[in-house]
């Protein structure tokens, strides 16, 4: 059987990133949050929530400008001054490295602690649904109190090293 080729190589590494920003418009606030998270000068390719098998956590690094970067993310914007908003992502890494892991995203009004706790539980339950033992769950969250117009993002960035 002929081996199939993919558009992008299968990632074998990931890192977590999060940021918040105020902006002139909701899009400017989101752009500022991307920059604060260190992923503002790349082309994000939003993906669904599967971590490739044997994908390892790495430290964040400067991505090449303009690169196509697979990312799962939770993002939120608000123009309600005083509102507290938060976003979080969680990565469930399976015990069996031959199996894929799971990424969950969640955002909304609330505290980073509550939002992160919720998304970690989502990842746990998603792995239970798949009948996969969990080696670990990695997560990151961000919280921001809106001044005028704010944007936040929490992301799982996939890469091939």
How is this structure best described in words?
The protein has helices at 26-37, 112-129, and strands at 13-22, 43-46, 50-51, 56-57, 68-78, 84-94, 101-109, 134-145, 150-159. By secondary structure, it is of the alpha+beta class. The chain has one domain (13-159): Pyruvoyl-Dependent Histidine Decarboxylase, subunit B (Pyruvoyl-Dependent Histidine Decarboxylase, Chain B, 3-Layer(bba) Sandwich), CATH 3.50.20.10. The strands form two sheets. Strands 2-5-9-1-4 form a five-stranded mixed β-sheet. Strands 3-7-6-8 form a four-stranded antiparallel β-sheet, with helices on one face.
Features:
single chain, 161 residues, alpha+beta, Pyruvoyl-Dependent Histidine Decarboxylase, Chain B, 5-stranded mixed β-sheet, 4-stranded antiparallel β-sheet, 2 helices, globular
- What proportion of the residues form beta strands (DSSP E)? 35-45%
Specify the overall morphology: globular
Instruction: Give the domain tally.
Output: 1
- Rg value: 16 Å
Strand order of the largest sheet: 2-5-9-1-4
Main sheet: strands, sense, barrel: 5 strands, mixed
Tell me, rounded to a whole number, the average pLDDT: 96
Write the layout of secondary structure elements.
Blueprint lengths: L12 E10 L3 H12 L5 E4 L3 E2 L4 E2 L10 E11 L5 E11 L6 E9 L2 H18 L4 E12 L4 E10 L2
Parallel strand pairs: 1-4, 2-5
Antiparallel strand pairs: 1-9, 3-7, 5-9, 6-7, 6-8
């Amino acid at each position: 059987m002929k081996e199939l080729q993919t558009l992008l190589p299968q990632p074998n590494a990931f890192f977590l990133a999060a940021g918040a920003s105020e902006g002139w418009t909701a899009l400017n606030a989101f752009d500022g949050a991307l920059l604060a998270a260190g992923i503002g000068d790349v082309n994000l390719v939003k993906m669904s929530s599967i971590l490739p098998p044997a994908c390892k956590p790495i430290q964040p690094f400067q991505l090449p400008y303009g690169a196509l970067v697979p990312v799962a993310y939770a993002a939120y914007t608000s123009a309600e001054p005083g509102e507290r908003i938060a976003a979080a992502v969680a990565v469930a890494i399976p015990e069996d490295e031959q199996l894929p892991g799971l990424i969950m995203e969640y955002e909304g009004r609330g505290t980073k602690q509550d939002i992160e706790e919720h998304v970690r539980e989502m990842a746990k339950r998603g792995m239970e649904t798949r009948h996969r033992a969990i080696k670990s769950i990695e997560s990151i969250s961000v919280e921001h109190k809106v001044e005028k117009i704010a944007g936040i993002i929490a992301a799982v960035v996939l890469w091939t090293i």
